[in-house]
Structures are given as structure tokens and as C-alpha cells.
């Protein structure tokens, strides 16, 4: 249940802070839609969209982000069920933020259900996301390939830290080959 129309400034400020706190975890399309609702005086609908999309894509958020979402929800008198179901993630993934975002937002089990190949998912990412974010991802990938010497470390980064559900080894690729392919498709 939404409080439509002019949400109080404090609610709007909290929703803006919540949106900022999940940057890199929401798909760019969803982030832009939430921002549009906020910009048009519908901060509560924007907040509901943020919660719905994080839940839909099973994206874990830092506890600080969930606290902001909770505060905004409480200020807007929303049902706690909207934010309480969000998963918490306090893993140290900051240096791999865009890799984590790619894996969690685009390479969850859903991509397999939609019948898309990994390359198609990567092209959709390239077409949907901001050029600066794509360039940041490319830098993170180059760094990961240069610093992680073993396949096990690269697999841990993609499958454990980033929580990607697609394992390229099942398609006969090494993790090095997979991350190199991601770089090539994003070029």
C-alpha cells in the first residue's frame, strides 16, 4: 500500500539515500525507474520498486543499505514485509563491485530460465548499463585477471564472492577464459 502523491521531504530524502546505497546492485533500468518516480514526487512508489527488484533478483544488500530502506519504509508507513525479506550481505566485495553487480543482477538462475546464452546476457548488460559502469567493470576484470593467479581464486571470485549462478566450467571453459570473454563482449 502506497502513500501516493507528495511524500514528505524526509521520506523523499530517505528514499534517495536508499537508492544511492544500492547503486551497483540494481539493474540500471530499475534504478532509473525508481529515480523517475522519486523525481516526479512518487518517492514511496520508487521505494517499493527498489525493494521489489532487489527481492525479485535475490540481490543481497549491505546491512547499512537495508537499514536505510527500513527507515524510509517506516517513515512512509509501509508494511515491513516490503523490506524485511531483503537478504543482507556484508561480504568485502567493494573492490569487485561491478563484477558482483554483473553476477548478482544478470547471472542469477533467471538468465537460464529466460533461455539466454551467457553471451546474450552479457550483450544485454552492455546495452542496458551506463558506459562508466561498464568501463569500471572492465577495469575490475583486468585487475582480477592480473592479480588472481589460480583458477580456484577466479572461481571463488565469480561463484562465491559475486554469487554468479553460471559456472563456465560446465561449458568447458576455464575461469580465465570466461572472464576474458566477458572483457571481449563488453569491448
From TrEMBL:
InterPro entries: CdiI_2, MafI-like. It holds the Pfam family CdiI_2. It comes from the Bacteria. Residues 100-184 form the CdiI immunity protein domain. NCBIfam families: immunity_MafI. This is Contact-dependent growth inhibition system immunity protein. It comes from Agromyces larvae. The lineage of its organism: Bacteria, Bacillati, Actinomycetota, Actinomycetes, Micrococcales.
Amino acid at each position: 500500500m502506497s502513500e501516493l502523491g507528495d511524500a514528505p521531504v524526509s521520506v523523499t530524502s530517505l528514499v534517495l539515500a536508499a537508492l544511492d546505497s544500492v547503486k551497483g546492485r540494481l539493474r540500471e533500468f530499475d534504478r532509473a525507474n525508481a529515480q523517475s518516480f522519486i523525481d516526479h514526487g512518487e518517492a514511496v512508489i520508487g521505494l517499493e520498486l527498489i525493494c521489489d527488484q532487489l527481492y525479485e533478483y535475490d540481490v543481497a544488500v549491505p546491512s547499512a543499505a537495508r537499514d536505510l530502506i527500513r527507515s524510509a519504509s517506516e517513515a512512509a508507513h509501509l508494511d515491513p514485509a516490503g523490506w524485511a525479506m531483503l537478504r543482507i550481505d556484508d561480504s568485502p566485495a567493494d573492490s569487485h563491485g561491478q563484477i558482483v553487480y554483473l553476477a548478482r543482477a544478470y547471472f542469477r538462475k533467471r538468465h537460464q530460465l529466460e533461455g539466454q546464452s551467457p553471451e546474450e546476457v552479457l550483450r544485454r548488460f552492455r546495452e542496458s548499463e551506463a558506459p562508466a559502469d561498464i568501463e569500471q567493470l572492465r577495469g575490475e576484470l583486468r585487475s582480477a585477471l592480473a592479480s588472481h593467479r589460480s583458477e580456484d581464486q577466479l572461481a571463488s571470485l565469480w561463484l562465491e564472492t559475486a554469487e554468479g549462478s553460471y559456472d563456465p566450467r560446465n561449458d568447458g571453459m576455464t575461469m580465465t577464459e570466461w572472464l576474458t570473454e566477458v572483457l571481449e563482449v563488453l569491448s
